[in-house]
Known about the structure:
Blueprint: E1 11-16, H1 24-37, E2 42-47, H2 49-56, H3 63-77, E3 84-88, H4 94-103, H5 108-112, H6 115-123, H7 132-146, E4 152-155, H8 160-176, E5 189-192, H9 220-228, H10 249-257, H11 260-271, H12 277-300, H13 304-332
Parallel strand pairs: 1-2, 2-3, 4-5
Helix pairs in contact: 2-7, 3-12, 3-13, 4-7, 4-13, 7-8, 9-12, 10-12
Amino acid sequence: xxxxxxxxxxxxxxxxxxxxxxxxxxxxxxxxxxxxxxxxxxxxxxxxxxxxxxxxxxxxxxxxxxxxxxxxxxxxxxxxxxxxxxxxxxxxxxxxxxxxxxxxxxxxxxxxxxxxxxxxxxxxxxxxxxxxxxxxxxxxxxxxxxxxxxxxxxxxxxxxxxxxxxxxxxxxxxxxxxxxxxxxxxxxxxxxxxxxxxxxxxxxxxxxxxxxxxxxxxxxxxxxxxxxxxxxxxxxxxxxxxxxxxxxxxxxxxxxxxxxxxxxxxxxxxxxxxxxxxxxxxxxxxxxxxxxxxxxxxxxxxxxxxxxxxxxxxxxxxxxxxxxxxxxxxxxxxxxxxxxxxx
Length: 343
């Protein structure tokens, strides 16, 4: 496998929790952008299996199977192991080591004010989230990032707060510890990526927790069946009632996936009641099937053994890079260096 040239391109790092097969919201919110980054950046993309335990610690039985699904979806979306380092978080133990060391200097107040901390506690009422792991997951995210000393973290606007916390943690570390007078952990920058509004079949944000997703692996009949039940503009009670695509979840799908010609037909036909919702949904399904077809074709090229081999190679590369950072961190903190591995 070709070696990545780490000197010629800025490094980026991002990850995704393995909570099941990925859906169109995951694709448009992250994967579609990650694929585009591969030609410009040195990319590290990982599956955050430890993060899955912060909310699903009571039953981790699906984490391994979900990890397998996610790497196949990564490859299906177009992530290329020749261009990007693809790996599983728990296969690189340096993540945990840096997280432990950073926990010694991180204020509890910083963690408690992360917006998603209270939001998830309010939304996931059926789970006990009063755990150290859940409180500390933003710091584990910071360690995930800083261990690779990236220049950028590709995120949507809703994730900028996590990168800001990472920058604060790096700044505090650098205040306490330096290596030969130089800072060890560069403050990463947010690389804002487009994240279009993508509703689920019930009109809410597409999310596994709502059961309203269109998965990357859904067949054409499954896509069309799901679209037929999708909510539409509430003003269109009867077929003869005019509607407004700007107030319709199906219209939001058209804006993301349909051609300009189809979108023009949607606006004209919906507002004049010249088309019904069933016809409009059919056009949306046509567009989604065209997007999903090449993704599913790529997925079929990889076996589970292929995916495991890619993750093993990626873990080796990620471990080498992470250990470079930890050598500097340990030295800056005046800790004993790690022992050499026995032959």
